[in-house]
Amino acid sequence: MTQTREYGRRVQQTPPDYSLCAGCNSCEVICCLVHGGAVSPSRRRLTVRRDIRTMMHTVYSCQHCADHPCYDKCPKKGTAMKLTPDGVAYIDESECIGCGLCHKACVFDPPRINYVKSAPKETRRARKCDMCFERPEGPACVQWCPVRCLFVE
Amino acid sequence: MYGYVGKIARIDLTDGTVTEVPTSKYVPENIGGRGVCNRIFWDESRPGVGAFDPESILIYMTGPTTGTGIPTGGRSVFTGISPNSFPEQYAWSGIGGMVGAELKFAGWDGFIITGRAEKRTYVCIEDGRIELRDASELWGLLVHPCQRKLEELHGEGVQSMVIGPAGENLMRNASITTSNDNVAAKSGFGAVFGSKNLKAIAIRGTGDVRPHDIEKLFELRLKMGNPYMRPSPLRREMTHGMDGNEIPVEGGWLRGQVACSHGCNQHCNRLMVDMKSAFGDGRINQVEKCVGIFAYGFQEDCSWTPIQNYETERNHFLACKMLSREEPAPDKDDPHFEALFTPVRGDITNYWKPDFDKGSVMMDMCNEYGIDKWDVIVWFMTWLSMAKKEGLLDDIDFGMEVDVESEEFVKYFLDMITYRRGKYGPIFAEGMARAVRALGKEKYGDTIYRGRYSQMTGERIDVPVSLETAWGQSYHWQGRGFEATINKPGWIATSLELMNSTRDAQTVAHHHEKYENYLEYKDDPCHSPLLVESIALDENKAEIKDSVTCCDWQSPDLYWPEMEAEMYTAATGIPMTAELLDEAAERSRLLFRAILIRDFGRDRAMEVNAIFPTMLYPDPLGQTVEWDEWNDLVDIYYERRGYAAATGWPTRATYEQYRLGDVADALERIGKTPE
Ligand code: SF4
Ligand code: SF4
């Protein structure tokens, strides 16, 4: 990750002195539900990393890099990985071939593209945050986090 | 299939085989969770099996809402023969965390564990694949190091259920722990894991859970959590404790609120940050729910506010809002406002003075050893305090001077019993009910403690040094012991619920009643069909909560009786009403009772004799119950349930009414139907 990278609007977690993540995983669930109706660790587009010892949890989501290296690496870019007019890279699941190259190209650790390698080939897809660009209300995770510890920056 | 994922795993630890049972064999008839467990146990167990025998079956089930995002559906349940019940009996134990959802993502609605592994073992579930693995690297580890080790072995994010040294050493009140320090503790199933050489279950799932009606799901998320939560910052608190146990904390302490289970819309668990650990110099975070606060100081019992049990249309709110201190402002125009919101102070107990660090160490030891906190705080420690003050311990040598005010002693004692050290470790590892009998109950259990005073009357309250109620459990909202300050109609109800059960029923059946009903029977609760109706409602709702699943802190809502049915239908798409769910609850309770009758000798004499003596000690107003009064109430209750008055056994007609003719046939063959 370079210092100079620029990011688009993205979902961020508030500091705990504003609101502490309750660790309920509702954001993951809601994200799955608004994108296809099934809840699954393979389908979420953001990840709550649970610390089993401290019980303080961290939410990781796509930072929407302005230069979108994930998009660039997609062998079907423009078809499987697409860009909204605002420059948000998103995946059209019906076109995604599940190669995982976008996941590999993510500059973050952990990668912000959810890609479950062990999933059966027929259902293996990459999934990433699309900022819920089709929802007039905006990001569903932000809207439904019970303690309002997510926001858009 | 919506809601359910379709199969249950049968894991035989003796021969290492795993087979699949279709969930559809049991649902929708038995709903899920505890309802399914009860059917499986009835079908597969038999009389004469002890909790620690290889034949002892341990069943774990999720509900159709688990993993769907329907609030509180993350709860799940174990059932089996409880080593902590006295005598051993079939019981259940609820657990939160992420583990139920993860199991469903792996494609399983639950599992049935049978047999005993020859070597120390853990079960690894990765989607459809279930394997037994060598647990020699895990055995002996404390709870959190064991969870960490499983993350090392299976990668971050793996969900697990583990036991600590208490379970390994067959301590009868050992817990099974999952994330956020959620435990299945009350029934001592951690020791059943230990007896099966089973240290842990690690789960990773990548599959789908599909709720049927997503629009309805979102509606439920709004309505069930109402009013919706606010931002919840980590706060520095300058004091800790409640009522007479409050103390200033130098420099303050950091409090957050965290959720207990997957997809919940609340955060009732209090996260305590940077607390003193019992192990080494490090600081730890831990969660505290209701009983934990008394580890820190127990000079005064919990106060009681009638709104905790009695509700009006204008004043009722989710119990979870109390724990996170987010109760809505009360409606003061309610004519019952004063009566509902006037708190009653708990008894002066004089058990131990507040000590923030010692309390933290006690909690940490329970968490890491995997022991039921309830038994430690409310029973072991109160007994040590009272027995010492009454001079009963003068001729007992624990190897260290008994002093519950001392952190060193608390550590020493919990260490001694967890590892069964010395002469007394093995005795107390059997739990208090069995320990006081081994020592001599008359002296060590029944001696009256002379240090407890009612703040309502100013009078001394005669409680015994061992706070034992029925079935080897400690009192809970029963007018004596812990959370004693509930009025007589309240403790009559909770005691009847315990009588019908095999363990503390209050953790999933906190008593809820409409205040208008209470006013009808408050002067003569033992002759009230209305009170019996509210008991039946709370008992049935408990069954429903553990089956659908949902949480005791959000259910029941007396003014939204369809809530659980709406949750069920949103998850499964199967039409459901409150009446149909109530019928399923009756069926589940009948199966539970049939198991007790067939395998554990349950009848009227057994249960009345188990509960009645525990109510002869006075409540904080000096009230008790008469033998005839109690039996009148039992008569009304049995009639309401369709049990024969003389035996307490359900009649054939009752079983048949709930499509359990096969159960009636089986009981009739062994002479255990009243006809
Ligand atoms: S919904 Fe909010 S509180 Fe719950 S895990 Fe996500 S970020 Fe944390
Ligand atoms: S903004 Fe939408 S797509 Fe992105 S993580 Fe949140 S819910 Fe998922």
Can you describe this structure?
The complex is a heterodimer of chains A (153) and B (675). Chain A has 153 residues and is of the alpha+beta class. Chain A is built from four helices and eight strands, in the order E-H-E-E-H-E-E-H-E-E-H-E. Chain A has helices spanning 26-34, 69-73, 101-105, 140-144, and strands spanning 11-13, 47-49, 58-60, 81-83, 89-91, 114-115, 126-127, 150-152. Chain A starts with 10 loop residues before the first strand and ends with a strand. The model of chain A has no long low-confidence stretch (mean pLDDT 94). Among the domains of chain B are: 7-204, Aldehyde ferredoxin oxidoreductase, N-terminal domain (Aldehyde Ferredoxin Oxidoreductase,  A, domain 1, 4-Layer Sandwich); 469-669, Aldehyde Ferredoxin Oxidoreductase Protein, subunit A, domain 3 (Orthogonal Bundle). The mean pLDDT of chain B is 96. In chain B, strand 4 and strand 5 form a beta hairpin. Chain B has a six-stranded mixed sheet, with helices on both faces. A four-stranded mixed sheet of chain B has the order 8-7-12-9. Chain B has 675 residues and is of the alpha+beta class. Chain B contains 23 helices and 22 strands. Chain B is globular. The structure holds iron/sulfur cluster (2 copies). Residues 21-27, 48, 59, 145-147, 149-150 of chain A line the site of one iron/sulfur cluster.
